[in-house]
Amino acid sequence: MAILVPLTLGLVWIVVWLRKVGSREPGLPPGPPTLPLLGNLHRFPKESPHYKFTEWARTYGGIYSLKVGPGTVIVLTDAAAVKELMDKRSGSTADRPPMHVADVVAGGLNMALSRYSESWRTLRKTAHTILTPQACTKHLPIQLAEASQLLHDILCRPEAFYTHIRRYANSVILSVLYGKRAPRYESRETTAFFEAQREWHLVLEPGATPPIDLIPILKYVPERWAKWKQDCAKTRQMQRTLYFGLLDETKERLGQGEENGCFMEEILARQVEFGMNREMMGYLGGVLIEGGSDTTSFYLQSLILALVAYPDAQRKAQEEIDRVVGGHRMPTLDDLEEMPYIRAMILENHRFRPVAPLHIPHRALNDEECIYCITELYDDPENLIPERYLLNENGTKPGADGSDLRPNLPFGVGRRVCPGIHLAQNSININTMNFVWAFNFTPDTDTQGNPILLDMFDYHKGIGTGPRSFRCKITPRSAEKADIIEREFLEAADTFSKFEFGLSEEDKEFVVRSRVRR
């Protein structure tokens, strides 16, 4: 009998505790109603969560909270709150939440996902040291050459524009990082990257693995009963084979005196100064390949989707570039200063279809307090309207305060801002001008000649997102421009040759065949 009292009290305590799990603690920002144990898990969107988060923001304000079982997520949708907490207080908000599967795959060395640690600080410092605006300017020749091939590829096979863009983005970052380009989408390194990246996205996709970070005991389930462990092991092997293979090739070239000025040569030469070991160098290169390949290609694919869907915006951009550049030469980066509408289009495409609509979650190292209300900043936000950025530099509607917005917000915030921002922006600027100057983008048609409507919301799931493959018609705007594209591509051969190391026989044959004037 005596033992029943403590047992009863213990059971009562457990019941009371369980009823509190999932409840919103006092002092947290408001948010959707919760259920015991689950919190808001039952209402948490399984795909494209940024749409639901925006809906909740209109109800609960610019800072609101979600309960994920016993855990808490604070959602920021107000620009002033983002600036205050993520930029001004970045020393406190630069951490990442635990992500066990990412640590299993990359050993805690994926700079984008890793926790705030000494290793992360070393990786970040090294990346920002080598990826300065001045250093990126030195790599403009290969970016321009690759952009000329992108135009040439689209001219020759417009139906494959989607993969042409992926090849371009991957080849640029491979050249800049490792001094080795990929002349075809089927090139070994490009194929290996996109295969590994597909597995990586599947591992990271919400719901793809059990809630390991909420229920840590799941880490100890034997691999034969945990498919997620098998998937992580497969992804890790694929990434390491590619990343460390490229690192070793670069080291071998450096030892043979065959430098071409790529970033990884500098990291190898300054390895001791930077405090980098082999593991850190391999994964630093890997995360930069991931960012440079995916985000740039997503942006350019979304741009083409927008040009097809918004012909008036395309026409206005073409009128401006024709006025500034004309039809007898290709545009240059210097021309962009004289093209306010195309600059506005670049900003609007970032806003309209951001490649990372949620960014990657941050984790606060200290308790922070901040109160803001949601402000509707844009008129007709669901449509692409470059003109909004001609009215004011932030594109906001009359009367809305957009002073806390900044143009590089799509590239991250605080100490987690993307180190490759300058390289990426150069690619975006070059190719936006090239596309508008060179081609007409129109809807594809069915067998009766009727335009096929595009699904503007058919996007990949995941942290980074771009449109799924779609069809459209791409035609050169004039025969003269087609000739200029071919001439510029052929003249880029000398630039390409500095980065054509270790090509497969198929790549070599493609290079020879493609550099014969049609």
From TrEMBL:
Pathway: Secondary metabolite biosynthesis. Residues 1-23 form the signal peptide. Heme binds at C418. GO terms for molecular function: heme binding; iron ion binding; monooxygenase activity; oxidoreductase activity, acting on paired donors, with incorporation or reduction of molecular oxygen. Its cofactor is heme. The keyword Oxidoreductase applies. It is found in: Membrane. GO terms for cellular component: membrane. It is a single-pass membrane protein. Pfam families: p450. Keywords: Glycoprotein, Heme, Iron, Membrane, Metal-binding, Monooxygenase, Oxidoreductase, Signal, Transmembrane, Transmembrane helix. The keyword Heme applies. InterPro entries: Cyt_P450, Cyt_P450_CS, Cyt_P450_E_grp-I, Cyt_P450_sf, Cytochrome_P450_fung. Belongs to the cytochrome P450 family. This is Cytochrome P450. It comes from Favolaschia claudopus.
